[in-house]
Amino acid sequence: MSKNELNIIGTTVANELPPAYSLHQHACLTLNWTDRLRLILFPATIIDVIRQAILYSWPHGIQGEKQYAGAYEFKLYGTPWHGQGNQAVECRVMMLSILSALHHHGWYLLMSTDVSKKQQDKDSLIFQLGAPQPATSFFAVSFNEGDKLRLIGAPHELIRAVQQTIGIDEIQREEWVYSQAAYQFKLRGYPWVGNGDEAVTSRMKLLALLDCFTSFGWQLHGSIDMSIGYQGCDTDTWFFRRKSDTNEIILPNSSDSVNIDEQTTPQIDVQQIENNNNQSNDITNVTENSLSLSISNNEAIDFGENDPSTINTTIKDETNDSLC
């Protein structure tokens, strides 16, 4: 290979390198205690982006911000990582907003990993810097209590496909929950705590769901443990992405109808979040949030989420913040 060819290759590689606005090519986001989010080695511009994503999607707002041992910490109102009641859905909407904003700015979720031996710990999210991405849609799947599956921000055609994939005979009840913030399937049996044959069949259902999502062009973005759960009984939340025509993630509607076809879905505009960055630099104490998700208050049970109409055995969740 000639020197000229080597120079051409070197120039091509240099042109494909990530943007130069960050000294670090990897960064980390951690979920701490029940209400804190820490950013490690993210540039200041991305901290601003995440701030706006939180303010846009977390109805309780930001209680305070500070430098923490070289990281940047947001302390939120509420207890998102406790994952109880309505906040179990709200916190996942917030994570959708954060992941969407980071992906749009070229920060790829490399892995979600458990690097702590503490009880009631949560995943650390490792990101790698690359090229900014075009418009991408996101939605989430959560596994609740022992027998419920929730779709958060999923398009309506996907909800119908999930109905068909699971099968009518395997669904006890389905409905919009928490003021239409998520679409919930109550399944037969207890697939998330199943033993014996049920431990196998539940995983077959999950594989079928992955096939279903893939057939619609959705790709698994990450599987994240973002809740302290109860005595280790927490489960991951799945986040999916798909290229779209606009910079948005689909958010649930506050309509009273439970008819899927009649639902309309307001959306988060990533560009709007980006344009608001200059209005929130150096915020140290934010007490109000301009966006409020209309989600009703419900009592908390078991794995972090309660359906008031459910008669299943419940476990009272008492959190010890010192363990997180």
What descriptive keywords fit this protein?
disordered C terminus; 324 residues; single chain; six-stranded antiparallel beta sheet; alpha+beta
Model description:
The protein has 324 residues and is an alpha+beta fold. It has one domain. 25% of the residues lie in helices and 26% in strands. The chain is built from 6 helices and 14 strands. The chain has a 6-stranded antiparallel beta sheet with strand order 3-4-2-1-6-5, covered by helices on one side. The protein has a 6-stranded antiparallel beta sheet with strand order 9-10-8-7-12-11, sandwiched between helices. Strands 13-14 form a two-stranded antiparallel ribbon. Strand 1 and strand 2 form a beta hairpin. The chain is globular. The C terminus is likely disordered.
How are the secondary structure elements laid out?
Blueprint: H1 3-15, E1 26-32, E2 36-40, H2 44-57, E3 62-68, E4 71-76, H3 86-104, E5 107-113, E6 124-129, E7 136-144, E8 148-152, H4 156-166, E9 171-177, E10 182-187, H5 197-215, E11 219-224, E12 237-243, E13 248-250, E14 267-269, H6 270-275
Antiparallel strand pairs: 1-2, 1-6, 2-4, 3-4, 5-6, 7-8, 7-12, 8-10, 9-10, 11-12, 13-14
Helix pairs in contact: 2-3, 4-5
Count helical runs: 6
Describe the sheet with the most strands: 6 strands, antiparallel
Distance between the termini: 56 Å
Query: Strand content of the residues, in percent?
Result: 25-35%
How many strand elements?
14
> What is the count of structural domains?
1
Order of helices and strands: HEEHEEHEEEEHEEHEEEEH
User: Low-confidence parts lasting 5 or more residues at pLDDT below 50?
Assistant: 5-18, 247-272, 277-324
- Strand-pairing-aware structural class: alpha+beta
Side-by-side strand order of the widest sheet: 3-4-2-1-6-5
Q: Radius of gyration, Cα only, in angstroms?
A: 20 Å
In round numbers, the mean pLDDT is: 77
Helix content: 25-40%
Give the overall form: globular
